[in-house]
Structure formats: structure tokens, C-alpha cells
Amino acid sequence: MSFFEISKNVYWVGVKDWNRRMFDALIPLPRGTSYNSYLIVGEKKLLVDTVNPGFEGELKKNVDSIVGLENLDYLVMNHAEPDHAGAIPYVMGLNGKVKLLTTLKGAKMAQTYYNVPSDRINVVKGGDVLELGRKTLRFIEAPMLHWPETMFTYLQEDKILFSCDFFGAHLAEGFFDDDVEDLPVFAQKYFGEIMMPFKVMGKAALEKLKDFEVSIIAPSHGPIYKNPDKILGLYRGWVEGVTREKVVVVYVSMWGSTECMAQTISKTLLSEGVNVLEYNLSYADLGDLVKDLVDARAVVLAAPTVLNGAHPLMVYFLYLFNALRPPTKYCVILSSFGWAGGTVRQIKEAVGANLEILYVLDVNGRPNATDLANVVEAGRVLAKKVKGA
Ligand SMILES: Cc1cc2nc3c(=O)[nH]c(=O)nc-3n(C[C@H](O)[C@H](O)[C@H](O)COP(=O)(O)O)c2cc1C
Ligand SMILES: [Fe+2]
Ligand SMILES: [Fe+2]
Known about the structure:
Rossmann fold; 2 domains; binds fe (ii) ion; 7-stranded mixed β-sheet; alpha/beta
């Protein structure tokens, strides 16, 4: 068993998944993750979210060492994704009286994903209050963060916000924010991967939170924030799409021509005093790359032509880029082709509506001195824009 009291009669009873290395079959987890579940003990006993399938027994041991799983009165489902809701059937199977509390959309999902009978679900709305005796909960609807049913739960007496994935970070280590030196980096990665497409909803949620005094933010992945001001400040910038003087150079190259152009523009940008992050798509960690898209002002897209279009790794990246909706404003396109090309057209079609294209270079074969001078020129134009914005 492992648990700890984060506030009087409020316990973390989650699990740490040190060995998980992939999430959603998409996101690398270099330092594992945690599935935070919280037990609130008033006269009635309530569990906020559960854990990923496979860890049900661990959750039970943790809860049992405090109150006994069979004594739970309520189970809050802030979010229906299996990393938090996966143990719901297990808990409800062992405890025949526990009621599931969730939004209207959550109720539908609990039935389809977890076969929870409707008579065991109490639908809650934003503003609803639940008295546990000595502990009072309020529910805050926070839709599309990042599924339609998502909500937050607020514990009034202790001023704790249980925000589920919002404010989360994929980290197994650390109990509290102070424990992890590079927590903001992991919080930014998480925001980029999961919340960035829903900036508008994130902004609305932060607005709602102004009505609540929050002393502790207890998300469902990663450390608990005892100093919520810092993460709230970061999130305010991210949902607003505040960008920095920062350019992400994303490239792929088979025989070095495109690489030479990408590296040349990186060096030019650096010599113009612009912060550059260079990612070769053949090796790039998607989490790191997405983290940098959260606040980069521009992106350089560089790829050779393969079979009449952009290299497939660039096509994959463009798809993700558009889906994640980063606040990036400008771009430069660089390409090398052997005979007919096709990459530039494809990239333009993919990003044209979302980015201002400042410069395009499509080079036949290896870039010569004139081509590289043009790359330097493109770098200067880009630097000026990025610094002027
Ligand atoms: C598998 C493969 C497919 C290619 N298909 C095309 C093509 O359809 N049209 C074209 O203009 N060039 C094509 N090329 C040529 C490359 O675009 C060209 O060699 C380019 O200079 C490679 O740039 P890199 O050195 O950055 O890899 C192809 C090359 C390879 C290896
Ligand atoms: Fe989720
Ligand atoms: Fe999650």
C-alpha cells in the first residue's frame, strides 16, 4: 500500500507507473506517469477518479488501508478516459452501494465504456454542491479539457481543486511541485499534447476558476501543486497563445540536401539572436517537439520530395501540427527535389490557412552557393518578423 495525506482527511491513493513509456500510442513518456486518485473522508467517503486498468488491486490496497473500499459512498468521474476511469467497474463491482458522480455526457460514457447501470449514476451539473459532512464539494463543468464530459471537483474546506488532466504532467516521480526541478517543462509538454487544441475551452475554465480560492491543485497526472500560482500563470500564457522569440526548425532529409538548408537557417537565426530549436524528424521526441510548439512564434518546415510529395515524416508532422493548433504565426518552407518536386505545394496546402508563409525555397538537388545565400536571406527575413512581432 502507499498513500499520503495531502490535507486533513484528504489522501492521495493513486499509483505511480514508473515503467510506462507510451501514452495514447502516440506520446513518449520518458519518466513514466502517475494516475492520481484521491480519497476524501468526511462523514461520507468519496473517491475522486480511479486508475489505469491493471492497477485496480493497488488502488484497493491504498483505499483499504484508510477506510475500506466497501465503505465508499461516492465515486467522482471527472473524466471518462481509461487512465482515470478504468478501475470504475472494479470499484463498483466490489462496492454495491457506491454512486458514480459525473456530468450528463460522462453518464453516457460510463454506460458505454464501463457498463455502469444508470441507476448507479448521479448526474452533477456545474455549481452543484455535495455535502459529505465536514467536507463540501462543488462541481465545475470544464468541457473539452480534453473530452466532452470533463469536469473539475472543488473541495471547499481545504480549497483543493481536483482538475483531472488539466494542469497534469506525465511524471511518476514527486509528490509535490517542489519535488521536481523541471516540472514546468513536463507541464508544458502535457499542455501541448493534450490541451493545446482546446485553448478556447482552457481559457473559459481559467475564467471560471477565478470564482474559487485555490490553495492546492491536485491533477490526475504528476505532482500536486502546493503553490498553484506558478502553474496558473503558465497556463494563462499558454491558453492565450503567447509566443516567444523562438523558432522551431523541423526537418527530414535522406541524403543531406534539405538538412544542409535546415542547418543553415538555424545558424542564421542564431546569429540574429533568435532562440532556435532544431528537430530532425527521424529521431525527434514528439513530446519535446510539441512542448516547443506551445510558445514558438515561427516554424521552418524542411523536407525533400519523395514520390511526388513531402517525405512521409513531414506529412505526419503537418497532420499533427494542424490538429494540435499551436499559436505559431510564421513559416519558411525549404525543400530539395530530384526532378519534378511536389513538396512545396503540399506543405503550402497543408498550412497555408494557419501560417503566414514568409519565404519558400525549392532547390533541385544539392543546394549551391546561391541557394545557401537564399537560405541565409530567408533566415534574416524570418528573424526580423519574429523579433518584430
Ligand atoms: C525514395 C525516393 C523517392 C523520390 N521521389 C521523388 C519524386 O517523386 N520527385 C522528385 O522530384 N524527387 C524525388 N526524389 C529525389 C529527392 O527529392 C532528391 O534526391 C532530394 O535532393 C533529396 O533531398 P535530401 O538530400 O534532403 O534527402 C526521391 C528520392 C528518393 C530517395
Ligand atoms: Fe485524458
Ligand atoms: Fe489522463
